[in-house]
Write a structure and sequence with these properties.
Chain lengths: 325, 240
């Protein structure tokens, strides 16, 4: 008697079943994707998308492997410089420029990760912070980065030799494609056996070792994957804004990823997207208002931590799960 | 039966094992031997070093000296993640069920290290309680079911030696009986088991031999068939 109600799928009529719901969500998502650049300023939407991918990449590491990196700006901004340089000086087409940025971030991630995963907790965070400050220094001093000016007037180029990205809508669909690819990679990784091992490590690393997992390998792989995707976001952003600048490699940028992820909900797939949208929207709206942006986001952050520690999406998921056990 | 025990190969041989957590010297020269197919218990008061002995075998202590040989391979100095891959499964006292994984995911998580592990179907036959609970969050199972899951996920991996730390702790008598039946079945299947147990009555029903530990070393070894004759000695040691 008790088993029926529990094992029963959601009652038809009240709630759509799993597949219908996925289809509905996909249709709604597509409608939003089509409408967004017409309703909102396209560059703004692209900015949100790039930061959403950046935050999701960060969340892969914090939310699923339990590693708090405070140096993700190094991958985001470093890749921006590489792709900007590749597009402007080497004349790379946009797809190769983004790829070059992503690859450079993956390589940097391999090096940083290899050093940082030897330590845990705050020491891990401090090592990643120190290493990313070195990248900031390089970005300031190296001859090709343009110092305080950054790399400006980066050509957006022609995608695959076919699509001219100077058309804002073409650029928008490209960015959307890149970000959806990134989200799909993260989703796949989280739901794979690899993702389950990561969750096990996050929860109880000695136990994962005693089951026979070489946990450093898993942590390093997660770190490289996260760095590469953060790099992909940065490389894409450099093409959108046609600019790679010091802002993207500062430690504040690393902090932004932390903020967006925690606001949206750490360890949830959609949380960082919501967090990124919220923070970027606030930044854009407050930029001309004279209200200091950092104070407002800081205030929201404090409220969030005090009232709903799971973040926006985390809290919603939690409530839904409690209502339908 | 006695001569089978004599001729059976030694599976685990611990010699003069010392283990340290930081500055604390926990094990002071533990020596014991487990033959293939045997069930051996470690008895002793709290803090005698029973759990630490299991953790030292798995390489989960700060530092260890001495010798631990498993099927001829020396484990001291080996990286901790390689020990389970030799075919040693460890079921810790706290069970170590992952809260963020479902029961099925917990079951499938440990890597298969060698052939001859039990299939999921066989595991479900052994622990029928787990069959219907696949989608349930691992830590929402009852204590007994969590214990079953902790044992079950080791059985899939093909491990031959199972280190069981207090499997009956905090469980209702009816569940303890179920665990006892399961452990006996595992013995019949040829698993070698080292069991840490406070519940002496439970231990006596399944073990071949008992090692008694005190202050970080083995002070006595009692074959199960001489248990009755040794009761006085044991009572003095354990203070039960």
């Amino acid at each position: 008697m008790t088993t029926d109600t529990r094992t029963d799928p959601a009652q038809p009529g009240l709630l759509p079943d799993g597949r219908t719901r996925t289809l509905l969500l996909a249709a709604a998502g597509f409608a939003v994707a089509v409408a967004a650049p017409h309703v909102l300023y396209p560059v703004f939407v692209m900015k949100v998308l790039c930061f959403a991918l950046f935050a999701c990449a960060f969340n892969l590491l914090l939310g699923f492997a339990g590693l708090l990196s405070f140096g993700h700006a190094a991958f985001f901004g470093g890749a921006a410089y590489v792709s900007a340089h590749a597009a402007k000086v080497w004349g790379f087409p946009p797809e190769l420029a983004i790829l070059a940025g992503t690859a450079s971030a993956a390589m940097t991630g391999l090096l940083f990760g290899w050093l940082a995963i030897r330590r845990q907790g705050i020491y891990f965070a401090m090592i990643t912070l120190a290493l990313s400050q070195m990248v900031f220094f390089l970005a300031l001093q190296l001859p090709f980065t343009g110092g305080e000016d950054g790399i400006q007037a980066v050509p957006r180029g022609v995608l695959f030799g076919l699509v001219d990205l100077n058309d804002p809508l073409a650029m928008y669909w490209t960015v959307l494609g890149v970000c959806l690819f990134g989200f799909a990679v993260i989703r796949r990784a989280v739901h794979s056996p690899f993702g389950q091992v990561l969750k096990a490590i996050r929860e109880n690393e000695p136990r994962a070792i005693s089951l026979g997992y070489r946990t450093e390998r898993y942590k390093l792989l997660a770190f490289v994957l996260s760095a590469a995707l953060a790099g992909m976001a940065g490389a894409t952003k450099a093409l959108v804004f046609q600019l790679a600048s010091l802002t993207d490699v500062t430690w504040q940028m690393s902090g932004e990823a932390v903020l967006m992820t925690l606001l949206g909900g750490v360890g949830t797939l959609a949380g960082p997207v919501v967090g990124a949208a919220l923070v970027v929207t606030l930044q854009n709206h407050l930029a001309d208002s004279g209200v200091p942006v950092t104070v407002v986001t800081g205030f929201i952050f404090v409220v969030c931590v005090l009232l709903f520690r799971r973040g926006i999406v985390g809290e919603i998921e939690h409530r839904l799960r409690r209502r339908a056990p | 039966m006695p001569d089978r025990a004599d001729t059976a190969a030694t599976m685990l041989e611990v010699r003069d094992l010392h283990a340290f957590y930081g500055e604390s010297h926990i094990l002071h020269g533990v020596s014991l031997e487990v033959r293939r197919g045997e069930v051996v218990t470690l008895l002793g008061r709290n803090g005698a070093g029973k759990t630490t002995t299991l953790r030292a075998i798995m390489g989960m202590v700060g530092r260890r000296t001495g010798s631990i040989r498993f099927a001829g391979t020396e484990l001291v100095g080996m990286a901790p993640h390689r020990v389970p891959r030799l075919g040693i499964g460890y079921v810790p006292e706290e069970r170590g069920i992952f809260a963020s994984l479902s029961t099925a995911e917990n079951l499938m998580l440990p890597p298969v290290v060698r052939e001859g592990g039990m299939s999921v179907e066989q595991i479900h036959t052994l622990f029928p309680n787990l069959r219907e609970r696949g989608a349930t969050q691992g830590t929402r199972l009852s204590g007994g079911e969590q214990q079953m899951l902790a044992i079950a996920r080791i059985l899939r991996t093909g491990a031959e030696l199972i280190l069981l730390d207090e499997p009956t702790e905090g469980l209702a008598p009816v569940i303890i009986d179920q665990i006892g039946v399961a452990v006996r079945r595992l013995k019949d299947r040829g698993f070698t088991i080292v069991l840490v147990e406070q519940n002496f009555r439970f231990a006596a029903t399944i073990a071949d031999r008992h090692y008694v530990m005190e202050e970080g070393h083995v002070v006595d070894m009692i074959p199960n068939d001489r248990l009755d004759a040794s009761m006085d000695r044991l009572h003095a040691r354990l203070g039960v």
